[in-house]
Fold this sequence. Notes:
- By secondary structure, the protein is of the alpha/beta class.
- The protein contains nine helices and 13 strands.
- α1 (45-59) packs across α2 (97-105) and α7 runs parallel beside α8.
Amino acid sequence: MTARRPDAAVIGLDLGGTKIAAALVAADGTVLARHSLPTPATEGAEAVLDALAEAARAVRAPDTGAIGVAAAGVIDPATGTVTSATDTIRGWAGTALAAGLAARTGLPVACDNDVRAAAATELAALREGAAGRGGGTAGGDGGPAGPWPTLIYAAVGTGVGGAVAAEGRMLHGAAGIAGHLGHLPSPEAEGLPCTCGATGHLEAIAAGPGITAHYTRMSGVPADRLESVAARAARDDPHATAAIVLGAEAAGRALGGLANALGADHVVVGGGVPRIGALYTDALNAAFAAELMPPLRDLRPVPPGAGSDAAVHGAAALTRTLPLHSPRTTGVLR
Length: 334
């Protein structure tokens, strides 16, 4: 069984529906090489695994220790499989991601959901800050032994993804499903179909396509994308304004309730939707604050603090924190 190599450079792969980003990351976090290529999303899982291997080869160095993959879908790090996914990548659900990539590259592979990997970079910074303030030291099992951060991380874009860390430890849950915030029940979405097949979930009203669809329902005027709705709101279209505000308020209420349930001390909201501007973020923040119990009254969502390399850094970090799936034995390296 191959041991972990903490001083070796590792490869971080960020797999999205349109692009694969790869980076060779040194042990100190320095990015040594980069590469990107289109995701063959319509060609099936085997083609995507081939593309991931190609991206890894483009940045690989002779002493590379492992590969970390941050991927779309519900990923179970323990088995290295995609347990559930939308049709953004054809045939992605059920893919043996870790085993397939390890076999193609000869390197051990760790994998996780892409939003959770990005959230891990935020969590690492928060944990370093807590340690610097004397917040505690990790226990012998790598878990927290003091007042570490409890983080809610939401990514609001074409869907609503997320991650949750409790007292410094990222939660994965059964089959890796923890943190999929878009599938919280939302009264604002009652009766609306969700991408998961159910109805009434947050994603159906708060994600970009959900806001766009709601605008069309109210106005009777088609809109091709969220940016078009935002442009109409900027021109004082009342239906566009109402659709954006409702989606933001739905997200804010859900996150505020979750903050109460978990006792969160950090809430991060990223993704493409918040970038449409203050109309969205102000409504989200106000709805969030209105839900908070008194001990949390000063808590407010903040944007992600990590830069453009957050995804590949988060992917690379998976090789230090999650099970590594060996190419030789198809077993798990702890």
